[in-house]
Write a structure and sequence with these properties.
The complex is a heterodimer of chains A (198) and B (563).
Chain A: H1 19-45, H2 55-58, H3 63-84, H4 88-119, H5 128-159, H6 168-195
Helix pairs in contact in A: 1-5, 1-6, 3-4, 3-6, 4-5, 5-6
Chain B: H1 24-32, H2 37-67, H3 76-110, H4 119-142, H5 173-201, H6 214-246, H7 259-293, H8 300-314, H9 329-341, H10 343-357, H11 366-389, H12 391-397, H13 401-431, H14 437-463, H15 480-510, H16 548-553
Classes of the chains: A mainly alpha (198), B mainly alpha (563).
Chain lengths: 198, 563
């Protein structure tokens, strides 16, 4: 048995979008839908807790952690540009900076949670605020964690000299995810620390 | 394999002889580790067929229980598990896997690609879906939790809060339900990401978006819809598990949470889900009706636009499941109108299919018969849908058997009919053998009769006030004879499905050898052998119209001349 060959002349070049970027964009849409539902649940439940503590009493605005996370979007972009120019030293440096900024953010969340749990006595089952707060911020933190594991993996591969300019496309796809995690934080920050405390 | 080394114009079958001297262990190993979209597609479909039989058995048990009044064939507890498992199974373990399986098998072939965009993600998605199903059914043995209460979920397929909260559903049955759907949901999202990337990035030369077969278009729309449909369900299930395991209060009304929010979240998933299931059925009809009418599809751009339109509108209709919840008049009015707007794009589709058949040389193969059945039944399903979209009518009939009859008219009368058509149409491609047409005609007529006896008459006890999900009923309410008729029709459908399964098995070894293109069709999957080799096409195809095989067979009058 043989296949029927179908051939014909096509003069125009045939270029399609990168499957990695399309796939990651699709995943980001799906993730956004998950976050949307959690954000809606948070907004809907603002002020519905029947016991304390309330966000006004216990939440502090994590300005430093936020600055770290948002600037990591910039540093990952600088790292990508360095990779495109095959400047592996600069790539490694800025990639490391990105990872450190992410770790600082996650550490900030850990410190904040520690304070909330041990000083303020707010856990996920204390009241509705606790339930919605820990699940929304926790959902975001779990995405940061996944991103940090990814960044660390690339960092280790870079240090062992296995990353080259030919990986720029894949790293670019991964960076999309990281930008998404940062962008979601803008929404979470606004909802939890600005709208939720007002 | 360096296929580019093969000289253009020549095609060599490089498939190693299959199944030869391979023991069953090697064969099993081969299937477990495969990343081939065709094998994964077949596994999706096989998995779905197994659950079709399981879900069908559960439906039959429900119908035996309801056939006569005051029946005690099942215990009330078992009855609750049966309708929960029937619904969950048919939607998540039969419907979703089978549409994804068909997309998996056909989309790369139809766009002239060698595989999906992410073959390993594809395998991952399948196994997540498969283990999700196993997790759900494991609840029959594992569901008896610390409290010794129940086995298998019994909260209904929409699992309304607060019934699902720990206080009212002790034990682990509800957790199995939620976790199974989270796990298989991840698989579904992975498959959707893969289908989108495949359609956007893997098309062969010349396959512009508006030359893609409509099946591919519709699966692109469905995959996009899955992204924004399954994810909310996953989010809601996570919230439910936070409530159940970590003592959260999302749906805990006593702590200020809201059960209504669950209903909203569930139907934000639940209604678009209907279109996730029905659009692939449309996709199948879009391929089969033109081939057996011997005409190109009528109104291709309108079909694409209508599909995209349906997907958008479907995101804004969910609360028509909630007219009896007690929303404001403004919300009720909005959801009445948005629901009725769905009739416009679906109407466009029905007219386009009719126009495709109009004046064609119709060949009444089994596949075409199922498609024609689909056209009639989908129309009726749409009409009862419009009736139910009118809020006062819904207040009267909400949660009655009228609603059950309506959505089974969609799920069975439209979707299952198209799925059966797909089996008769593509089975030759997948196996290299034709499904037996004589058995096929038996299957069709038995199924169409059984379907109408069951679901036409099921509307009547609903109109007479019979609510859904009741264990049994008193005699003398005028429901007895109708329920008996419905149950008998169910038995006829069951026989038809058994004929179909027998046909699948029998034709696999005894069917007529199909050849590459048994239907004289026009899309790319028929350009390769049946079954297709692992790499699909020895030479990457180049297309210059919507019907590449027509161009090939009719070089004197190719479609590309008219584009």
């Amino acid at each position: 048995m043989s296949t029927i060959p179908i051939t014909g002349a096509v003069d125009r070049p045939w270029i399609l979008p990168s499957r990695g970027r399309v796939g990651m964009s699709a995943l980001i849409v799906a993730e956004s839908a998950i976050f949307t539902i959690f954000v809606i649940a948070y907004i809907y439940n603002i002020g519905r807790s029947i016991s304390g503590p309330t966000p006004q009493q216990v939440l502090e605005v994590p300005i430093f952690a936020t600055i770290c996370l948002l600037s990591s979007s910039l540093t990952i972009w600088i790292a990508e540009r360095a990779l495109h120019r095959s400047n592996m030293k600069m790539f490694g440096l800025w990639w490391l900076v990105t990872w450190v900024l992410g770790v600082i953010f996650l550490g900030g969340t850990a410190v904040e949670w520690r304070k909330l749990i041990y000083q303020d006595g707010l856990t996920i089952h204390t009241n509705l605020f606790g339930t919605t707060y820990y699940s929304l911020v926790g959902l975001h933190a779990s995405h940061v964690t996944v991103g940090l594991i990814g960044i660390l993996t690339v960092l280790i591969l870079t240090l062992s000299g296995k990353v080259a300019v030919r990986h720029a496309e894949r790293i670019g796809v991964f960076a999309l995810y990281w930008h998404f995690v940062d962008a979601v934080w803008v929404v979470v920050f606004t909802v939890v620390y600005i709208v939720g405390r007002s | 394999m360096s296929d580019r080394a093969i000289p253009i114009g020549e095609s060599i079958d490089l498939t190693p002889p299959q199944g030869m001297a391979a023991g069953w262990l090697e064969l099993l190993h081969d299937w477990v580790i495969t990343v081939d979209h065709k094998k994964l597609g077949i596994m999706y479909i096989g998995y779905a067929l197994i659950f079709l039989l399981v879900g069908g058995l559960e439906a039959m048990l429900i119908r035996v229980q309801l056939a006569v009044s005051n029946n005690h064939f099942l215990s009330p507890e078992t009855y609750n598990r049966m309708f929960t498992m029937h619904g969950t199974t048919m939607v998540f373990l039969m419907g979703m896997p089978i549409i994804i399986g068909i997309a998996n098998y056909l989309v790369p072939l139809m766009i002239g690609a060698r595989d999906m965009a992410f073959p390993r993600l594809n395998a991952f998605s399948f196994w997540m879906t498969a283990f999700g199903g196993l997790l759900l059914y494991y609840s029959f043995i594992g569901g008896v939790g610390l409290y010794g209460a129940g086995s298998a979920p019994d909260v209904g397929w929409f699992a309304y809060a607060p019934l699902t909260e720990k206080a009212f559903s002790p034990g682990h049955t509800t957790d199995y339900w939620a976790l199974a759907l989270i796990v298989s949901g991840f698989g579904t999202i992975g498959a959707a990401v893969n289908i989108i990337a495949t359609v956007i990035s893997m098309r062969c030369k010349g396959m512009t978006l508006f030359r893609m077969p409509l099946l591919v278009w519709l699966n692109l729309v469905v995959a996009s819809l899955i992204l924004v449909t399954i994810s909310p369900l996953t989010a809601a299930q996570i919230m439910l598990e936070i409530d159940r395991y970590l003592g959260g209060h999302f749906f805990d009304t006593q702590a200020g949470g809201s059960a209504i929010v669950w209903i909203h979240f569930f139907w934000i998933f639940g209604h678009p889900e209907v279109y996730v299931l029905v659009l692939p059925a449309f996709a199948i009809a879009n391929e089969i009706i033109p081939v057996f009418s011997r005409k190109a599809i009528f109104g291709y751009p309108a079909m694409v636009a209508a599909s995209v339109g349906i997907a958008f509108i479907s995101l804004g209709v969910w609360a028509h499941h909630m007219f009896t919840v007690g929303m404001t008049s403004a919300s009720n009015t909005f959801f009445v109108l948005s629901t009725e707007i769905v009739a416009i794009p679906t109407g466009i589709k029905i007219f386009n299919w009719l126009a495709t058949i109009w004046g064609g040389k119709v060949r009444f193969t089994t596949a075409m018969l199922f498609c024609i059945g689909f056209l009639f039944q989908f129309l009726i399903a749409g009409l009862t849908g419009i009736m139910l979209s009118v809020a006062p009518w819904d207040w009267q009939l909400h949660n009655s058997f009228f609603v059950i009859a309506h959505f089974h008219y969609v799920l069975v009368g439209a979707i299952t009919f198209c799925l059966f058509a797909a089996f008769y149409y593509w089975y030759p491609k997948v196996t290299g053998r034709m499904l037996d047409e004589k058995l096929g005609k038996w299957h069709f007529w038995l199924f169409v009769i059984g379907f109408h006896v069951t679901f036409d008459f099921m509307h009547i006890p609903g109109l007479l006030g019979m609510p859904r999900q009741i264990y049994t009923y008193e005699p003398g309410r005028g429901w007895d004879s109708w329920n008996m008729i419905v149950s008998l029709g169910g038995a006829v459908q069951a026989i038809a499905v058994l004929v179909f399964v027998f046909n699948l098995v029998w034709s696999y070894s005894k069917g007529t050898v199909a050849g590459a293109d048994p239907w004289d069709a026009w899309t790319l999957e028929w350009a390769t052998t049946s079954p297709p080799p692992v790499y699909n096409f020895a030479v990457e195809p180049v297309v210059s119209s919507r019907r590449p095989l027509w161009d090939l067979k009719h070089p004197e009058d190719p479609d590309s001349r008219y584009e």
